Structures are given as structure tokens and as C-alpha cells.
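sanity check both lines:
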Amino acid sequence: GQYDPMVPDAECLRVVTEILDSLDIGKYVLKINHRSLLDGMFEACGVPADKFRTTCSTVDKLDKSPWEEVRTEMINEKGITPEAADRIGEYVRLNGGTELTEKLLQDEKLSKTKAAVEGLKGIQLLLQYCELYGIKDKILFDLSLARGL
């Protein structure tokens, strides 16, 4: 169907929070990111377009592996330059909420990349809807999330 941007995404997050709350599992957080932001971030950091997806799969390991291991894999196995890997590392270790999206929209590199700006504005809108639904405190914008977007 036809929906305003991010409305279905926010509704899905709301449904998930309702389910998790009803299961009484304790405190939890739902991590979000945006594919366009990842692509824009990789572009701004100097990753060739044909290596975006393989770089994503490496970044996604940050929840289980330390940054140094992820960086080494990017360079040695994925063919990313050390400089690009270091620039990626500046971003993928960030997480937060609306204040982070505002900060990143002012970032010198990301603000010049159309895909990154598009993704950041999408995340901002999604977080606004989450606030309206009363679930903002259960949502975390995490730049290291690279799958399940």
C-alpha cells in the first residue's frame, strides 16, 4: 500500500514493544539503523560501491567482536584501505537518539553525501513517530547495526 515514510516502520516497532512488554522480559532496547545511511557512510569514508555489502557484513560483527578485529577483517579480508576503515570506525561506534541524528547531519563528510542525509532524515522521522507512540525510551539508533534493518 501507500504510506507516509517511516509510518509502517514505527508501527512495527510499536507492535514489537507491545509484545515484549506483555511477555514481561524486563528491560530491553530495539536497535535501529537505515540502509541509506550505511551506504552514505561507506561512500563518505571512501569505500568503493562494490564493497558496501561485504563491509556491512563485517561491521555487523561489532556486537560480538571488538573494533580492532572488525577493522583487521575489513582491511585484510575485504580489501578496505586502513584509512577508510578508520573513518568507518569513527561512526560505527556511535549510538543514541535524535540528538545523534542532528549531530551527524552537521558532520562535514556525511552532510555532503545524499544517501547519508536521506538515511539520517529517515531515522529522525522514525524517532519522532516513536516518541508519539511513547516507545522512544526503548529505541536506540545504532550505527553498527548492519543487518535486520
Observations:
- The two ends are 20 Å apart (CA to CA).
- The chain has a mean pLDDT of 95.
- The longest strand covers residues 139-142.
- The chain has one domain: 7-142.
